[in-house]
Amino acid sequence: MRLLLTLAIALPALAQVNFVACPIVRDTKTVPCFLAEYQGETYFLGVQQDITAAFYPPQLLHEVLVEGTIVPGPRVCGGIPLKPLHTSVLAEVNRACNTILPAEPGIDAPPAKRPAGPSTRQAPVSTAEVPPKKPEAPFLEREFTIHYDFDSDFLFARNTRELTDIAEYARVSKAKAVEVTGYRAATLLSNGKLLIEGTNVSRLRAERVAEVLKGLGTPASEVRWISESAAATGAADYENRRVTVRIVP
Predict the structure, then answer these.
(1) E-assigned strands of the chain?
(2) Positive or negative, the Cα torsion across 208, 209, 213, 216?
(3) Which of 8, 12, 150, 223 has its CB surrounded by the most CB atoms within 10 Å?
(4) What is the rounded average pLDDT for all residues in the chain?
(5) Cβ contacts of residue 133 below 8 Å, gap of 6+?
(6) CA-CA distance, 69 to 33, in Å (whole number)?
């Protein structure tokens, strides 16, 4: 369970905004848009895409933690764009989070690189999504990082590629050690409140990754976790919600 504290500090006026709000679904003539309101402004979160896309839409009946940086430019689907953007669905049910807006003339969704539905027959949309080359020598010590939603150990479909890459590097490099470390984090909100992840989340993350790697033929030589929460600054707190896998050839 997350903890919520109030800090007696004044945050500087930055373009970074971190807040918790109910997501809003706006219908359009193409795909649904997801928005959120904070301090009288509406922010654009993303559009409905397939399950392998980097953006995983928030859920109605749940609040969403929004961590993003305001970027200049026109509104998108009626909301201020944020980039980079990280959203996390909070586990507690909030039945007030059920707003669906109808489509309106002049408010259109941006093109979806990965339309909603199965992705098995869709071609890669960028060179970044082309299957990577097989690791080649020299094989050096490497550390891989898997990031998470707030207070969650859930692995998304997008993490499948990351874990497969880790297992492949360990196999090809004939790794002598595979060290898995889980971390716990906190997020400083723009209103001065502090969200802290549950005490067990670092252990759950590490054990889940170790389990998946074992299933891929890469058993971990060491699995550990850091129970203390990393300090939050409000700038890039999402980077601390992670598991690292250190491969030693």
Answers:
(1) 3-6, 16-21, 23-26, 33-38, 41-47, 62-70, 80-93, 99-101, 142-147, 177-184, 186-188, 193-196, 222-229, 242-248
(2) positive
(3) 150
(4) 88
(5) none
(6) 18
What's at 186, amino acid-wise? Answer: A
Please write the tens of the pLDDT for every residue from 199-246: 999 999 999 999 999 999 999 999 999 999 999 999 999 999 999 999
Indicate the burial class of 45 (C-beta count within 10 angstroms; 0-12, 13-18, 19 or more): buried
Alpha helices in the chain (DSSP H): 157-172, 201-215
Q: What is the DSSP letter of 10?
A: -
Residues carrying CATH 3.30.1330.60, the chain: 127-248
At a CB cut-off of 8 Å and minimum separation 6, what does 13 contact?
none
Domain 127-248 in CATH: superfamily? OmpA-like domain (3.30.1330.60)
What is the maximum span of the chain, computed from C-alpha positions, in angstroms? 60
DSSP 76: B
DSSP symbol at 174: T
pLDDT, tens digit (0-9, with 9 covering 90-100), for 228-237? 999 999 999 9
AA letter at 104: E
Report pLDDT for 96: 97
If you search the block for the tokens 């790794």, which residue do you land on? 175
Which residue, 41, 26, 17, is CA-closest to 110? 26
